[in-house]
Design a protein that fits this description.
Pfam families: OsmC. By secondary structure, the protein is α+β, with helices and mostly antiparallel strands. It has helices at 5-12, 57-81, 118-135, 137-144; strands at 24-30, 33-38, 43-47, 87-96, 101-111, 150-153, 160-164. 35% of the residues lie in helices and 28% in strands. It is elongated.
Amino acid sequence: MTIDPALAAALAEESVPAVAPDAVWIERVGPRQYAGFNGRGARVAIGSTEHDGRFTPGELLKLALVGCTGLSSDVSFARRLGPDYKARIDVTSVKNVEEERYTELVEKLEVDLSALEPDARDRLLTVVSRAIDASCTVGRTIKSGATVTLSVIDEASGETVAHTSEDGI
């Protein structure tokens, strides 16, 4: 696997600009290659499928979904199964290639529930389902949809030169 030197430098950079902890942004490091950052210092390599060692935006969306499911269910599972319980969450998708969008995302959460009695298992699954439904922001957003807007700013002048929304420019 070959990593682009600009991407490696961007991902290895120790200094993160002073930004809000919840800030998220990407910077271009090469053709169809970006480095993603957050205000807490995390970094991720983003690229198209022809570049190894990078996540595609679609993969990041799916990781966000299963990550949110895991975090939303973690306290409930840990409370009943112990703090060191093991879990794995996979996600598969159905993609409408013509529309360039996913029409279905299917999560599969694997966890050992064998130590629980059937009634306790059912109660835990109800609690977990409610926790995910109530606090998984990513899942809730995907299910209900979100308005997406984009402003294009001329870096030299600071002027907004284009603004797009779901209705187009």
